[in-house]
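Revision sheet: structure tokens.
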Amino acid sequence: MKISALQTARYGYAPKLPAVLAGKPETIAIEAGKPTQSIADQAELKKIFEHTYGKPLVTFVKGKNPSVKKELRVGVILSGGQAPGGHNVIAGIYDGLKKGNAKSRLFGFLGGPSGLIDGKYIEIKDKLMDEYRNTGGFDIIGSGRTKIESDAQVAASMATAKKMKLDAIVIIGGDDSNTNAALLAEHFMREGQNTQVIGVPKTIDGDLKNAMIETSFGFDTATKTYAEVIGNIERDANSAKKYWHFIKLMGRSASHIALECALQTQPNICLISEEVESKKMTLRQITDYLCSVIAKRAENGENFGVILIPEGLVEFVPEMKRLIAELNDLMAVKAAEFNKLAGFDAQADWLSKNLSKASAETFKALPAAIAQQFLMDRDPHGNVQVSRIETEKLLISLVETKLAAMKKAGTYKGSFSSYNHFFGYEGRCAFPSNFDADYCYSLGYTAFILIANGLTGYLSSVRNLTAPAKEWIAGGVPLTMMMNMEQRHGSKKPVIRKALVELDGKPFKTLAKNRPVWEVKTSYTFPGAIQYYGPDEVCNEPTQTLLLERGRKKAAAPAKKAAMKKPAGAKKPAGKK
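Predicted:
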């Protein structure tokens, strides 16, 4: 396989570590805090997690810790969707194990959690590990979305761990995957099996975070990758001056990606699902808002613009949320009856008789092509796959109809042409930014220290992320601390609560403050490609979201100023003094 020059160069990059992790492993001790409790439903969760609930927060400090020299056997799992930096998490675990004891071994389960259930794995050794350092993707061992839920799956997982004599399993995943990690840790302890379970916070959606988990890995790289392309489109729009670009971005349950990309690129409009839900905005109200901005810009002779749309927007619009819920319930009860229907017309007629009047009217008002997307490719539970709904095309259709009516009434005199885009998979396996390369390596190394100290049911935590890496704070957070009980598939289950965009938080407030100007005045910024070499402000700056949340930056403009400085010895342009 031919290796690119960039990939060759990235192999040689040495990820930065917090100062506490930079020395010999035996000089890293742990400092335990007070016992913790879950964010809600304490009594219920204490019953479910009888052996692992209430553990203390732990922080790493300089000290003596000879236990890290133990010979260990550790398994690692990549779970869920890809996120840039996953390979460096594994590298951090691997290097930690080998520094602790050269005889320690790391095994990678193939294809996600199913690899643990089925006992399919490979041993990760120097040659294999070195081929994946600082690279994107999860292809070193593959990923998967299997959940370890049933008694049979749990029993099979425990049998694999016992057969392999594993001291620990590290699960690299999002909120659902780490909920699984917590349950697995509890099962092992309940059965008296000495296999520890440690989680690592992964998801480009950015919705696995709290006071102790400042960001999930991959969010930095993915949003910078999307922002580069959005900036390119903005520059094209401002050059051609004739198209409106509707851009859907990943983020079903939360709008962190859309918000971060807006802060980086300053588009004309960025819809935030959480705001739509809070204001109970209907599709009509959203359409009216979009058309009002389009009309204002047309008055200035600017018949172009850029609109960012979160992937999960439709689930936050009241009438759409109700429609989706009713469709899910219908498919659960009458799936066999529905599946016998031939063709969309027959399906639509059946739905008009089985949905509530309000939802039937909502469904009927949808463009046929969009309506069909609500009925196909249901997930294994029979639910609508919201990610398959082309929300950007739906909004374009509604805007076109509204603008035509406005033109007829004389309230709109512009011209409207549109393009639709969906940026999702393009960002999940990008070369990790320096931030993600460093952060992920630190998370992996932290996971090793947690294992070496005999801890289980913890999530690897690295904090103080707006400071230089040497000032980062490493430790562990009990998984049960982030949990509550939620209704899932007809019953209440323990889950790690998703972190949604906070409307009173600084990132959203920065957007809200600036958008009246961005809507009308072309204010685009162009982040450009991710840079790996150069000044810190160009190569190592974290996301706008992180900077704003941690109070390290006032404004949202992310222009890479260092890259725009006049080179030494450059002459002034003619006529300039």
